[in-house]
Amino acid sequence: MKKVILAATIVAASVSASFAGGYSEPEVVAVPVVVEEGSSSSLGGSTALLLLGAVALAVALSND
Fold first, then answer.
1. How far are the Cα atoms of 7, 20, 33, 47 from residue 17, in angstroms, in the given order?
2. What distance lies between CA 16 and its chain's CA centroid?
3. Does the global pTM surpass 0.70?
């Protein structure tokens, strides 16, 4: 009977020690995401159209 009580006491002591800290939720570290945006193709198209318009205006205004 003494061995059973001793075994129960050891099991009870080890169980309470294993749960002493409680549950701690793991921390999730978010990694920042960097998005590099390229140049817009519409800006290049607008510049080309303005340059073409300027050349056409210069040709139209010339008196040769």
1. 16, 5, 42, 74
2. 40
3. no
- Residue 64 CA to residue 62 CA, distance in Å, equals 6
pLDDT tens digits, 39-53: 655 566 678 888 889
Tens-digit pLDDT profile for residues 4-22: 888 888 887 776 555 556 6
Report residue 26 as tokens.
């793991």
Pick the closest to residue 14 from 6, 23, 4 (CA basis). Answer: 6
- What's the token pair of residue 12? 């009870």
